[in-house]
Amino acid sequence: MAFVDSDKLSYEIFSILESKFLFGLDDHKQLLFPSSSSSSSTDSPRIPAGAAGRVRILSIDGGGSPSDAFLAAAALARLESSLRRHSGDPSATVTEMFDVAAGSGAGGVLAAMLFTRGHDGRPLFSAADALQVLLAESRRRGGRGFAAKRGFLRGVFRRPGGFLRRIFGDATLRDTIKPLLIPCYDLATGAPFLFSRADAVETDGYDFRVWEVCAATCADAGAAAVELRSVDGQTRVAAAGGGMAMANPAAAAMTHVLHNKQEFPFVAGVEDLMVVSLAASAVAPSAAGTTGLVRIAGEGVADMVDQAVAMAFGECRRSNYVRVQANGFMCGNCTPRMANPKNLMEAAEDIMSQRNVESLLFRGKKISGETNAEKLDRFSGALIKEEERRKKSPIPTVVVKQVMTPRTSSATNITTTTTTTSTKTTSTSPDH
């Protein structure tokens, strides 16, 4: 019992520090004692605890290997399949079951593919369709370019124009359906820069073309910076890649929600959040060269963010936080197959079948009794329950900022012959 009490005290002390330094909250009771009547925020309406529901956040890590995008896309396709099964709706999508998306590097491209509005008003892709498009592009390029480890990612995600411009056209951050956050490191200011839909809606000075944002977050640390300007030309960014600044954007997404009272008026603390965080692949990085060192640093920081976020959730982390990542470094028989597009799905399935890795309060990590696939399946049920709760509640959970001067998106809806379901329009009404 003494050990348990000590653990609880340690958690409370850590939460006080974290609420101040990680999430910027001055009132630590918002995190520690959410039900306390003496700790209500003065700038938020008073409502019964839990009545407004929980805000659902999707976070996708960035990475530098060509497998990163596919593993995250495969995990999202698995989650989407589970959502359809649990809801009984064959056209349910990841987009409609999350309120906020954050992605770095290849994860940023995936988030943009799912949350950018197409010319027909619907999301550009379901998770299943996004995965098939990436696979089709990898097969089209194929050969030595893909096998050269980073050649595919550079060719598809980093080269100006090409694949990214074909997918997103002239769509800007304002054309995203829900709040979207994508980071890069800005060499012009020597600081991280977070591309945000919320900022883009407020002013043209922070509205950027989506394909350029994706190129910025995927910029190669060992190559020239990706230069881009806002749609009004007033803001200039010299991007060195999202992995340089924020390989794991989960904490940034949580902070955005906790402080954005305009769109998330009833969120008081982490107990009001549901977070699904997808890690980059765990292929052992090489220490040789600048890129290898950057990847090591990025993965180390991503792991530290996971630890901090898991501790912030504390006792409610099982119901409110899911982290999906490879169990240690990629298994030996998986790594060689990453060089062949035909075997990418097999490698992704291997990761899904691995036991999930969980961060513990001041105890490092442990191997869970659930596989990554089982954990996603369980959490999908919780996402569905939250969606059903909102349909019956008169209290809005999210109030998405509306675009005052909407533009017509020229993003291209690409259909594939490998999937038969289509995405649905995601509502931006207060209840969603």
Automatic annotation (TrEMBL):
Residues 401-432 are annotated as: Disordered. GO terms for molecular function: hydrolase activity. Residues 58-254 form the PNPLA domain. The keyword Lipid metabolism applies. GO terms for biological process: lipid catabolic process. SUPFAM superfamilies: FabD/lysophospholipase-like. It comes from the Eukaryota. InterPro entries: Acyl_Trfase/lysoPLipase, PNPLA_dom. Residues 405-432 have a biased composition (Low complexity). Its EC number is 3.1.1.-. Keywords: Hydrolase, Lipid degradation, Lipid metabolism. Coiled coil: none annotated. It holds the Pfam family Patatin. The nitrogen atoms of the two glycine residues in the GGXR motif define the oxyanion hole, and stabilize the oxyanion that forms during the nucleophilic attack by the catalytic serine during substrate cleavage. Lipolytic acyl hydrolase (LAH). Belongs to the patatin family. This is Patatin.
